[in-house]
Amino acid sequence: MKKVLLIAAVAIMGISAKAQEFRFGPKAGFAMSTIKIDDKQDDLNERKMSPKYTFYIGGMAEYKFNDKFGIQGEVLYSPLGGKEKIDGVNAGVVFVGEQTKVNFGTLLIPVSAKYFITEGFSVAAGVNAGIILSAKQKTVVGSDFLDMEVEGEGGEVDIKKDIKTLNIAPFIGVEYMLENGLFFDARYSLGVSNLSNDGSGGNVKNSFAQVGVGFKFGGN
Q1: pTM value?
Q2: According to the model, what pLDDT value does residue 206 have?
Q3: Which of 76, 97, 182, 196 is the most exposed place for a label (fewest CB within 10 A)?
């Protein structure tokens, strides 16, 4: 009986070890980023932030505990942010408008739990820790016949002192991997951190969607 139990235990351990799998590799793709500003900032009440279309690039590592469950960590870089446009008003002789672009150079560190519906198809949920390395704003003042950048007021300015460093964003996503290791994924990260650091009492949040491709090395 003891021998039977020992053989069964060894067999279970062997199956478990075989199910464990470590993979790693590069990934890159397209991102759509938005900035949400609440009503506490009076000068921005009538402004609507539009999506900024950008990219991301980096690497990932995945560990599967068994055929169904795994964890994944990544390190990515993406210039996130948003755009805001103010419709022109009649200034007497010209029709003046304004467009502002905000850029957050962000190091993303997403960590997620994964559930494998099939060997190649999985869903994931986790948290994205974004470290904002730089924050810049560029405003263009335009008219019917003129586009003008005003340095210091309308040109590109550093706003890092007004933006907090950490952006926490929970996310959900899906992934499909081919047998050769090539994979495609998509996810949405909802920014929950208030990034405003200017003391005005306003609330600034950065959310973003990502669609990308990568390749996984390793595995059994």
Answers
A1: 0.80
A2: 95
A3: 182
